[in-house]
């Protein structure tokens, strides 16, 4: 069998796509899997690192403000749809998966116009523009939250949860302490601002370094590429306050953490559910339709996480983090409730749906 998986732009799209590919490869070792992404975006490096071939399209999103780049948008869309059509005809996939992001649109358009089975996987509680536009053309839509019929045809919806690398929850604490060179007797905060980093979290963490050092708290701080040079100078390595550009071994990072401070991207939220970590969520205000706040509220409304707005993070984030670290009972309560929201079989369910489409 042959499959095309399209989309990307952020880790929140890429890592679920890779999880789906890994499940397909495990079930069908002889299957051919081709990724299609956008040139210049992070999928063009992350997907090959995961062991898969990827083809890039010269497509960008439509800017939300007036800009000369928008004049080229129709041309890029036309060229990308034409290239996607050639890929479909040459590769001849049995099914196509779109994971969101503008690179998925040309591929899904080309596939559905040729009656090839197609499935969308929507990670967020507020549907992305591309997925909403293509919903009527695809066969099934796998979602992570209830109430998604306000965006998609109800008869196509399957509530699956988000594909998360299951090994993310299997990290060993003793191995994690050794891997990151931490002190097993001290408490640890993990800060993750998404695959590209988060300015607000980085600035708030930098301002709290001396406070964490004085309190004897350890820190694993994923900064993202842009802020890393500055963060490396601000961190205090002798006191186990570590700044890291990117954390490959997230299983060990979660295992080491007592409390997690995170943006509220769909992937991060799903990982927190699966690992059962007490967390403080700081939704990014710079996303379409404020969907990270909606993701966070899905947990907060059930008493499964703490929410601090981006606006209040500089003044309140580390007050709340230190209070939570000092309250084991509250940590346990958050951990118990967030585990109840986990969907560990999401990837398998999505692949089941994909294979059923082919059979039909």
TrEMBL record:
Q: Which GO terms describe its molecular function?
A: undecaprenyldiphospho-muramoylpentapeptide beta-N-acetylglucosaminyltransferase activity
SUPFAM superfamilies given in the database record: UDP-Glycosyltransferase/glycogen phosphorylase
Instruction: Give its E.C. classification number.
Output: 2.4.1.227
Every Glycosyl transferase family 28 C-terminal domain range: 188-338
Pathway(s) of this molecule: Cell wall biogenesis; peptidoglycan biosynthesis
Q: Where in the cell is it found?
A: Cell membrane
What is catalysed by this protein?
Answer: di-trans,octa-cis-undecaprenyl diphospho-N-acetyl-alpha-D-muramoyl-L-alanyl-D-glutamyl-meso-2,6-diaminopimeloyl-D-alanyl-D-alanine + UDP-N-acetyl-alpha-D-glucosamine = di-trans,octa-cis-undecaprenyl diphospho-[N-acetyl-alpha-D-glucosaminyl-(1->4)]-N-acetyl-alpha-D-muramoyl-L-alanyl-D-glutamyl-meso-2,6-diaminopimeloyl-D-alanyl-D-alanine + UDP + H(+)
All residue ranges annotated as the Glycosyltransferase family 28 N-terminal domain in the record:
3-142
Q: How does it sit in the membrane?
A: Peripheral membrane protein
Q: Which Pfam families match?
A: Glyco_tran_28_C, Glyco_transf_28
Task: State where UDP-N-acetyl-alpha-D-glucosamine binds.
Answer: 10-12, 124, 165, 195, 247, 266-271, 292
**In its keyword annotation, does this UniProt entry include Transcription?**
no
GO terms under biological process: carbohydrate metabolic process; cell division; cell wall organization; peptidoglycan biosynthetic process; regulation of cell shape
Gene3D superfamilies named among the record's database cross-references: Glycogen Phosphorylase B
Q: Which UniProt keywords apply?
A: Cell cycle, Cell division, Cell membrane, Cell shape, Cell wall biogenesis/degradation, Glycosyltransferase, Membrane, Peptidoglycan synthesis, Transferase
Q: Which InterPro entries does the UniProt record give?
A: GlcNAc_MurG, Glyco_trans_28_C, GlycoTrans_28_N
Cross-referenced PANTHER family: GLYCOSYLTRANSFERASE, UDP-N-ACETYLGLUCOSAMINE--N-ACETYLMURAMYL-(PENTAPEPTIDE) PYROPHOSPHORYL-UNDECAPRENOL N-ACETYLGLUCOSAMINE TRANSFERASE 1
In the record, the note on similarity to other proteins reads: Belongs to the glycosyltransferase 28 family. MurG subfamily.
List the protein's name. Answer: UDP-N-acetylglucosamine--N-acetylmuramyl-(pentapeptide) pyrophosphoryl-undecaprenol N-acetylglucosamine transferase
Organism encoding this protein: Hymenobacter properus
């Amino acid at each position: 069998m042959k499959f095309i998986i399209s989309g990307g732009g952020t880790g929140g799209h890429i890592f679920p796509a890779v999880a789906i590919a890994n499940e397909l490869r495990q079930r069908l070792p002889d299957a051919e899997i081709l990724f299609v992404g956008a040139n210049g975006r992070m999928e063009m490096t992350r997907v090959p690192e995961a062991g898969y071939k990827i083809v890039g399209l010269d497509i960008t999103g439509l800017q939300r403000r007036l800009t000369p780049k928008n004049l080229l948008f129709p041309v890029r869309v036309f060229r990308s749809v034409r290239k996607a059509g050639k890929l479909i005809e040459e590769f001849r996939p049995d099914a196509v998966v779109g994971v969101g992001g503008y690179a998925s649109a040309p591929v899904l358009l080309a596939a559905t116009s040729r009656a090839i089975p197609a499935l969308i996987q929507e990670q967020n509680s507020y549907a992305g523009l591309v997925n909403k536009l293509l919903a009527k053309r695809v066969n099934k839509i796998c979602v992570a939250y209830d109430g998604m019929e306000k965006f998609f045809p109800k008869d196509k919806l399957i509530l699956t949860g988000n594909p998360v690398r299951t090994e993310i929850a299997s990290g060993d604490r003793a191995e994690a302490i050794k891997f990151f060179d931490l002190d097993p007797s001290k408490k640890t905060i993990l800060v993750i601002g998404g695959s590209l980093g988060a300015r607000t979290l980085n600035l708030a963490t930098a301002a709290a370094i001396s406070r964490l050092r004085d309190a004897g708290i350890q820190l694993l701080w994923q900064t993202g590429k842009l802020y890393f040079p500055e963060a490396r100078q601000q961190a205090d390595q002798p006191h186990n306050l570590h700044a890291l550009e990117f954390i490959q071994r997230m299983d060990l990072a979660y295992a080491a953490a007592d409390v997690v401070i995170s943006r509220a991207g769909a992937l991060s939220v799903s990982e927190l559910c699966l690992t059962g970590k007490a967390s403080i969520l700081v939704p990014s205000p710079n996303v379409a339709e404020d969907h990270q706040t909606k993701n966070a509220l899905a947990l907060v409304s059930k008493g499964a996480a703490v929410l601090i707005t981006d606006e209040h993070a500089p003044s309140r984030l580390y007050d709340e983090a230190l209070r939570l670290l000092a309250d084991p009972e509250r940590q346990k309560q958050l951990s118990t409730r967030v585990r109840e929201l986990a969907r560990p079989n999401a990837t398998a369910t999505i692949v089941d749906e994909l294979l059923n489409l082919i059979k039909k």
